[in-house]
Amino acid sequence: TAGITQAPTSQILAAGRSMTLRCTQDMRHNAMYWYRQDLGLGLRLIHYSNTAGTTGKGEVPDGYSVSRANTDDFPLTLASAVPSQTSVYFCASSPVAGAEDEQFFGPGTRLTVL
Amino acid sequence: GQNIDQPTEMTATEGAIVQINCTYQTSGFNGLFWYQQHAGEAPTFLSYNVLDGLEEKGRFSSFLSRSKGYSYLLLKELQMKDSASYLCAVINSNYQLIWGAGTKLIIKP
Hints:
By secondary structure, chain A is mostly beta strands. Chain A has strands spanning 4-7, 10-13, 19-25, 31-37, 44-49, 56-57, 64-66, 76-78, 87-94, 104-105, 109-113. Chain A has no helices and eleven strands. In chain B, strands 2, 4, 5, 9, 10 and 11 form a six-stranded mixed sheet that branches. In chain B, strands 1-3-8-7-6 form a five-stranded antiparallel sheet, with no helix packed on it. The termini of chain B are far apart.
């Protein structure tokens, strides 16, 4: 079982360019999440989706957008990248919506914006 | 504000016991997680506490005191593979998950 996958593994992006980070899970989990992880800081929630067709804003949503057209996929788009978006991005999922549920994380995408 | 405090880094010896503390100040409390994250990898679930007391799972145990806003993760019989960061996360009254910055544990032979 693949679990949760992310692509690309890493990327260097010029400031002002757009990019979509892909996330796919095969566990039929209802809830999915996007986090960024920066040195010295805890994971910060960017956007989440409690079920297919719905999305919500997390702690740091500015500059990012998401969609949830189906259960498996939850892409994260940076419309016009800025250097402060340099980070490691993790996608996660949980069987049901609700913070009490264990989250399963993808391997991460390391993004550098120059 | 909401705050999760963990030591930045700890060092322990292979075969020994180590306790990683986590204190929290959040708007309400609905549970606490511990996750393990090896360098360059994804976090993986270790434990979940919602009631006071100790939860034991093999070599790892997690303790919670809600009145003190305090938890610890206890790792026994340390192995080199336990070298990782350990993340504490609290569910607040709005059912938001608030993450600590993590404790990097270094195991020496």
